[in-house]
Amino acid sequence: MASKIKIYFLGTSAQIPTAKRNHSAILLNYEGENILIDCGEGIQRQFRIAKLNPCKITRILISHWHSDHVLGIPGILSTLALSGYNKILYIYGPRGTKEFMRDLLRVFNFQKKYEIVVEETSGGKFYETKDFYLESERMHHGIPTNAYSFVIKDKFRLNKNKIQKSKLPFGPLLKKLKEGKDIIHDGKRYKSKDFVYEEKGKKVSIVLDTLMNERIAPFVKDSDILICDSSFSSENNEEAREHLHLTAKQCGEIAKKSKSKKLILTHISQRYENNLKELLADAKKEFKETHIAHDFDELVIR
Ligand SMILES: [Zn+2]
Ligand SMILES: [Zn+2]
User: Fold this and answer.
1) Looking at beta carbons, which pairs linking 237-241 to residues 24 or more positions away fall under 8 Å?
2) How far is the CA of 209 from the centre of ligand 1 (A)?
3) 99, 109 Cβ separation under 8 angstroms
4) To which H or E segment does residue 69 belong?
């Protein structure tokens, strides 16, 4: 059985937080990994309210250095220091992230008892295990900005029932079958394809602040979950373009074009708080399976 991906929406506001919405932050949990995508102001209390432990964070991915996406970083780093965080904390972001982190650590001079490794990425895979990888793509938002994908790879698995019936012994022979090699046991030939099936991977893509651009759809192609900056409705198309943001309708277009399965709108401006239907309807013109994120929403992908 494949492990679950859990997504926690810890902040879903646009530039200005509201009573209902905190600055941007999304936590993605998969096995031992807890990846925080953006770290808006107030994130520590959001962790508390959601009953999540910030000490379990393994990596922080920064979309860009506008304040609504990063003001929570010094606070959380300081809390980790006070809470005996004892892992290496990996922080990834677009060009400029190393310099900003250096400045930030100089200004907020807390007792740092753990190691922080900062890496810049501007396209392609930047972290990979045998099971999953993290990928970035450059966006268009006036300053260096990344979109991110978390991708669980396709896997080959043994059909346990068939293995049991075959009475093949556990060990290197089964390993070979799983690797796609046919084997011979007690003079009998066993074909790999009869015992092995492919389990499709999963993909979660997060596209925060950006102007519509041609790189988005190919990057988020076939996402199971596509989370998108929906700062404006297409009523305010001009304003969206001026501020280098997406409209809800454009999010829908991206979801459709990329053949994603589910679209979640986030980065919700206070102007739509009492009229979320407008954003939803705008996106649904293009893509039916659209939802709007609220703070503390949780999503499980099996
Ligand atoms: Zn923003
Ligand atoms: Zn921004």
Assistant:
1) 240/211, 241/211
2) 5
3) no
4) helix 67-70
The tens digit of pLDDT for each residue in 197-206 reads 888 999 999 9
Indicate the pTM of the whole model: 0.92
Question: What dihedral angle (degrees, nearest 10) is formed by the CA atoms of 158, 164, 167, 171?
Answer: 40
Helix axes 73-82, 97-107, angle to 10 degrees: 60
How remote is the CA of residue 105 from the centroid of ligand 1, in Å? 22
Rounded Cα distance, 240 and 232, in Å: 6
Of the candidates 280, 222, 225, 289, the residue with the CA atom closest to the CA atom of residue 248: 280
Mean pLDDT of the chain: 94
Tell me how far apart the alpha carbons of residues 148 and 135 are, in angstroms, rounded to a whole number: 6
Q: Are 134 and 35 in contact (CB under 8 A)?
A: yes
pLDDT at 168 over 90: no
d(CA 255, ligand 1 centre) in Å: 20
**Residues at Cβ < 5 Å from ligand 2 ion:** 66, 209
Q: How many CA atoms lie within 13 A of 192 on its CB side?
A: 14
pLDDT at 233 over 80: yes
Known catalytic residue: 282?
Answer: no
Give the closest residue to 40 by CA, choosing from 25, 55, 60, 62.
25
Confidence of residue 174 (pLDDT cuts 50, 70, 90): confident
Ligand closest in space to the Cα of 65: 2
What is the phi/psi pair of residue 246, to 5°?
Answer: -90, 155
Is the CB of residue 9 less than 8 Å from the CB of residue 296? yes
> How many A from CA of 15 to the centre of ligand 2?
8
Under DSSP, is residue 120 helix (H, G, I), strand (E, B) or coil? strand
The answer to whether the beta carbons of residues 263 and 251 sit under 8 Å apart is yes
Question: 108 near 78, Cβ under 8 Å?
Answer: yes
